[in-house]
Task: structure prediction
Amino acid sequence: MAAPRQDAEPEAQELEQELELQAVIGFNGHIHAGLTCHPDREHLIYPLGCTVIIENLNNSQSFLHGHTNNVSCVAVSPSGHYIASGQVTFMGFKADIILWDYEKKELLARLSLHKGKVEKLAFSPNDLYLVSLGGQDDGNVVVWSIAKRDAICGSPASAQSAGNATVLAFSRCRDEMFVSAGNGTIRVWELDLLNRKIRSTECQTGQLKRVITCIMMADDDSYFYVGTTSGDILKLNTKSKLMSDYGPMKDKFSQGVTALLLLKTGDLVVGTGGGIIALFKGSNYKSIKKIQVQGGVTSLTLRGQGHQFFAGTEESQIYRINFAEFKEKCIATCHNEAINDIIFPLGTSDLFATCSKSDIRVWHTPENRELLRITIPNMTCHAIEFMRDGKSIISAWNDGKIRAFTPETGRLMYVIDNAHSLGVTAIAATSDCKRIISGGGEGQVRVWEIGQNTRKLGGVLKEHISAVSCIKIKKNNLECITASLDGTCIIWDLVRLIRNQMILAHTLFQCVCYHPEEFQIITSGTDRNIGWWEVFDGSVIRELEGSVKGSINGMDITSDGTHFVTGGDDHLVKVWDYDTGEVTHVGVGHSGSIRRLKICPGNKYIVSVSADGAILRWKYPHSH
Result:
């Protein structure tokens, strides 16, 4: 087992400082009711990985760090003073709830009783209590006192004969009543503060057996609605605990009702698993307006009492919808699959591109805004590169093709078919834009001659016996280096198309960089070591442990060669001093494995991308 970090890096431990996180592009749309509009109407609150993000609607962000694992649910108190967030953890371990002060963005308390996962959270109308629901392996409801930051009482959430409870809603008027529901269970709970007990009554739905996905309470508490996986909505009387009606009878939503909003007018907004958002007039279950969004709807949240609401979807899209026109506007988007590469064009830090399963996206750095999306359905893009002249983005795909697109419009310029037999896994271009070097899953390195209207194979370099993971070309275009999962890095002569040098290690190499002076290279991979090597003879200069656990998947070096950055399966971004081999700064914020990272031209930012689709922008710490 690896030694604890304190022992592993004693010198670095004192020197390490925290990297400043500037911006996050990412939204976990898979968390039901994960997107909430704060009562101040100016901020959206949502989880991403271990972080809770507070985003001002004019684009600035703040971050709540404190969870040790992915956040599974978030709630905002009716007054807006508090945020509560729950997390997942490992089976049998305690899963924390954190209570935050919204104004100060500070952690107020850790509440730890649930095991495995906190499923849902809800605040009472006057901010007196917080109720929490444990996940599948826990199954308990706990009521907490906000003032005392302590548990008052708890109870199993559902009868043993029923399925799990998965959703909660607090009364709108009384601090002593809330509702829970789930698979075949709908319960109304009363809190008896004197005796520190909660008592529940099971609601009766007659012959209907339903799996409940969401609850919406009426303003006066007289009734509440629940949405179901069957695609209908049940209305229940809070006093009698009986179902008063349900619908729609005929046009049920095929992929279930997944989110509900009840308006002051009595109208109902319904979000569905099929990406439909419908407006129901009153409670006659007939939709008068409908819109289609991208991905199943997982969150609906009102902006104040007001004229608009927000919707979050499984495909990581956030929409703003105005009631009057009932038209959607996508206000935030991000990848919802692992991101495989990130690149900046030559000389500018205001744009960058990322690639993921089936798409390439171009982003405007200052505003975290998507400018362009290029989609090739059912394919995966492994690597991308901006051509030096800025006229094209070249890309490596798992169907064995190299595709080139225009960066402004995303128009397909050309395709090199059958570039590699087991998919194209790495790509780079010479600075004169006359050659593309590609690496494949079968281990071949191929040199392509690129003319005005022609693309022809100039040479095949067959030495690697496993997938090529990274290619870097020397500034004079006469030499390149390729890293492979076969444990070798090869330096190639691009004029004579022969091997100059080979570097061997017991690792699957994931990344390689030339030092700007080009007489040394640095490498890393699955053995967690960072290696410094001489280009001239392939000899090792130094090896250091780069991570306490997991592979290092990405690295980049500054233009002056004084520092480099690494990221990998330990979710940490590390900034290293090239000469001393010491870590100067560590960035904590990713919840998925970091796949690649880049220092932007001009050394203003570091941008890192991860397996959960998140893009994080950090302030580069050593800029002069």
About this structure: Helices lie at 5-8, 10-15.
